[in-house]
């Protein structure tokens, strides 16, 4: 892997579009910052990256990823502290996960400097686009697509890596309503559930559309074999506060290793909270609910941050959680992680990369 960051060429926009950003009304994924990073992979190596104005790609209709889904992505966030310093939260962890996805999808791994230093330079250039309000950030979306012009089915030989960025507010504007799914399957052992492959999200669209029509926001997926154990929400990992313990399914081939999940577990354990990573059955959740022990439930994710769950529905049983204002763990956790991200609390883990 011979790419040098020194080789990144930068073509700046003639005129910034920053006046399109209304800090009081930021919607997730609607507006993109001025620049994007693009790098191509050909003949077994990554070519020097470019930072160019955000804009359309020109691709043959025969491009591999459009047909067979050889495509992966990541979600990362950049923040600004009170003095205006910019940081990126745990980008090395996203880089490592990106490469795990790449290997499983027969795509080339990305050199660390291309992913992390490329991202740092991009954020540096578009630092004016990082919003400063509480729960806002610049969402960074690295992704890779297979770009052979060939519709035969085989692993591609040409790829493009891009990073686009978008100012973001809260992904969910209120506590979410969750439907526990036991008809469709998100992931199966031996499959790609642990990756951020585009197809994982594509396959969730139809079941999600169905539950939206029923008035729910998101699906809590269960294991594909028996539909007995909960896995993840698809946009988030999931945590339950049962009695005085926090329980989350352990990561596996079928569950994404969330960076926010890991951050949450670490800070909760440091606080002395018992966190168990283990199989968690629907029966155990229902029993805890009926015994009055199901105190809180929340999702964690880069886009979602910490998102409280208002209610969970399983078949005919609607499990209404106590009012979120009374929750002790999730509300504290959200504040704690925000304090680290916005530089209000010492970053003892070295999670913030200074831009
Ligand atoms: C993220 O949290 O960054 C995700 O990728 C989840 C979703 C927005 C697709």
Describe the structure.
The protein has 355 residues and is an alpha+beta fold. It folds into 2 domains: 2-169, Aminotransferase class 4, branched-chain amino acid transferase, N-terminal domain (D-amino Acid Aminotransferase, Chain A, domain 1); 176-341, D-amino Acid Aminotransferase, subunit A, domain 2 (D-amino Acid Aminotransferase, Chain A, domain 2). It has 8 helices and 18 strands. The strands form 2 sheets. Strands 1, 2, 3, 4, 5, 6, 7, 8, 9 and 18 form a 10-stranded mixed sheet that branches. Strands 10, 11, 12, 13, 14, 15, 16 and 17 form an 8-stranded mixed sheet that branches. 2-OXO-4-methylpentanoic acid binds at residues 75, 201, 235, 301-304.
For the secondary structure, the number of strands is 18
Q: Main sheet?
A: 10 strands, mixed
What number of domains? 2
> Alpha-carbon distance between the termini?
24 Å
Which keywords apply here?
D-amino Acid Aminotransferase, Chain A, domain 1; 2 domains; binds 2-OXO-4-methylpentanoic acid; D-amino Acid Aminotransferase, Chain A, domain 2; 355 residues
Give a short summary of the structure.
The chain has 355 residues and is of the alpha+beta class. It contains eight helices and 18 strands. The strands form two sheets. Strands 1, 2, 3, 4, 5, 6, 7, 8, 9 and 18 form a ten-stranded mixed beta sheet that branches.
